[in-house]
Design a protein that fits this description.
CATH topology of the largest domain: Rossmann fold
Radius of gyration: 21 Å
Helix content: 25-40%
Organism: Microbacterium terrae
CATH class of the largest domain: Alpha Beta
Shape: globular
GO molecular function, one term: glycosyltransferase activity
Keywords: Capsid protein, Glycosyltransferase, Transferase, Virion
EC number: 2.4.-.-
Largest sheet: 7 strands, parallel
Mean pLDDT: 95
Low-confidence stretches: none
InterPro entries: Glyco_trans_1, Glyco_trans_4-like_N
C-alpha cells in the first residue's frame, strides 16, 4: 500500500468548520478512495487547528509556526528577485517537513505550496505539486521551474490553470502537468423534494464576500431588472468567521441592497454541514466572479443540488459548467440581468438547466477526481 500524505497550508483547518477549498478537496479525494486497497491517505495539520477533524484521512499533527505574515512574504519576494531562497516560507514549512522526515517513504502532495517540492526532495518521500491557484505573483520563470522541477508531477484543477502555469515554467516542467478536476459530494448535495412552486424566485450567491467574487454585480443586476418578485440571498462573510465585523465592502453591499425592489438578505459564513440546506432553499445560483477562478467548488455543489447556474465566463468556471448553465462576461451587470430575466420568465428552461446541472455534477463526483489523481499517482510509481 502506498502512503499519500497531503500537506496543507500551515494553519489551515482539516475540519468541516471551515469553508476553505483545499481541505474540502482533500476530504473529497480521501473519502472517494476509502475502498481503494492500494492507497492510504493522511494529512499534515498544525496541532492548534480546528476540531472536529474530517475522519477521511489520518491526521499527522505538528507544532507549526503559522503561515508567513505579509511582511515575511514581502521579504521572500525580495529575496527571490535576488535569486535567493524564500527563507520565511521555508521557515514556515520546516516543522511540516520535520514531521514526516523519519516516516516510511510515501508520496507527499504539496497543496498550493511551491516551496515544498525542493524541501521534500531532501527526505525519503516523493512529492507532487498540487496547484489550486496560479503561482504567486512575482515568481520568476527560473524560480518556478526550479521549485516545481523537484516534483514528480504537477497537478492542476483545470485546463485554464494548466495553461497559465505552463506559461510560467520551462517546457520540461510543463510536460509534467496533469489536470485533475475538482469534484462534488453528490450524496450531500442533492436536489430538494418540492411539491409546488411559489410566486417568488430566490437567487443565491454563496462564497467569500469580497469584490473579486462579485456579489455587488448580482445586486446591481437585480436592481436593473426592477422586479419585486425576486429574493436575493447572499451567504458568506469576508472570511470564515461568521461573527467578524462587516468589512467596508460588506457595508457597501447593504447600501446597494436598498435599490433592489425585492428582498435582499445577508447570511454570514456557514460551515460545510449547513451548506446543502442553504442551496436547497434556492431557485437560481449565481457566481458573478471577477476573479479568474481556476475551478469553482461551490458552483459544482449548486449544480449537484439541481440549480440552474449563471456564472462568469472566466478562468476555469466554463469547464465546470459545460453546457449545463449560462455564462456572462465578468463584471457585466446588464448581461447578468438579461440572463436572470430569461430564466425568471421560463420555468421549463430553469428546470431543464437544473436537470442538466445535476447530471453533469454526478459525472464529476469526487470518485471521478480520485480516478484522475490515482492515474497520476500510478504514473509516478512507474
Amino acid at each position: 500500500m502506498r502512503r499519500v500524505i497531503h500537506a496543507l497550508t500551515p494553519g489551515d483547518h482539516f475540519s468541516p468548520r471551515t469553508g476553505s477549498a483545499i481541505p474540502t478537496v482533500v476530504h473529497g479525494i480521501a473519502s472517494a478512495s476509502a475502498d481503494d486497497p492500494d492507497y492510504a491517505h493522511s494529512v499534515l495539520v498544525e496541532s492548534s487547528t480546528y476540531r472536529p477533524r474530517y475522519t477521511s484521512a489520518a491526521s499527522i499533527e505538528y507544532a507549526g509556526r503559522g503561515y508567513p505574515a505579509s511582511w515575511e512574504r514581502a521579504v521572500d519576494l525580495g529575496l527571490s528577485r535576488l535569486g535567493l531562497p524564500r527563507v520565511r516560507s521555508r521557515r514556515s514549512y520546516g516543522p511540516l517537513v520535520d514531521a514526516i522526515d523519519a516516516r516510511e517513504p510515501g508520496i507527499v502532495i504539496a497543496h498550493n505550496a511551491p516551496v515544498l517540492p525542493e524541501m521534500i526532495a531532501a527526505t525519503p518521500h516523493a512529492v507532487i505539486y498540487y496547484a489550486h491557484n496560479d503561482l504567486p505573483r512575482g515568481m520568476s520563470r527560473h524560480e518556478a521551474t526550479r521549485m516545481l522541477g523537484a516534483a514528480v508531477a504537477v497537478v492542476v484543477v483545470s485546463d485554464d490553470l494548466a495553461d497559465r502555469i505552463a506559461a510560467r515554467v520551462s517546457p520540461s516542467v510543463s510536460q509534467q502537468i496533469r489536470v485533475v478536476e475538482n469534484g462534488v459530494d453528490t450524496d450531500a448535495f442533492q436536489p430538494p423534494v418540492r411539491t409546488e412552486s411559489g410566486d417568488r424566485t430566490r437567487v443565491m450567491f454563496v462564497g467569500r464576500v469580497v469584490a473579486e467574487k462579485g456579489p455587488d454585480v448580482l445586486l446591481r443586476a437585480v436592481a436593473a431588472l426592477g422586479r419585486d418578485d425576486v429574493d436575493v440571498v447572499i451567504v458568506g462573510s469576508q472570511g470564515f468567521d461568521p461573527k467578524a465585523a462587516l468589512s467596508p465592502y460588506e457595508q457597501e453591499l447593504r447600501a446597494l441592497a436598498d435599490a433592489v425592489p425585492g428582498t435582499v438578505s445577508f447570511r454570514p459564513f456557514v460551515d460545510r454541514a449547513a451548506l446543502p440546506g442553504q442551496l436547497q432553499s434556492a431557485d437560481v445560483f449565481v457566481a458573478p466572479s471577477r476573479w479568474a477562478e481556476p475551478s469553482g467548488l461551490t458552483i459544482g455543489e449548486a449544480m449537484a443540488t439541481g440549480l440552474p447556474v449563471i456564472a462568469s465566463d472566466i478562468g476555469g468556471i466554463p469547464s465546470v459548467i459545460g453546457d449545463a448553465g449560462l455564462l456572462v462576461e465578468p463584471g457585466d451587470a446588464p448581461a447578468l440581468a438579461a440572463g436572470l430575466g430569461a430564466l425568471l420568465d421560463d420555468d421549463s428552461r430553469r428546470a431543464a438547466l437544473g436537470a442538466r446541472a445535476r447530471e453533469r455534477a454526478q459525472a464529476r463526483s469526487w470518485a471521478h477526481t480520485w480516478t484522475q489523481l490515482r492515474g497520476v499517482l500510478d504514473e509516478s510509481a512507474d
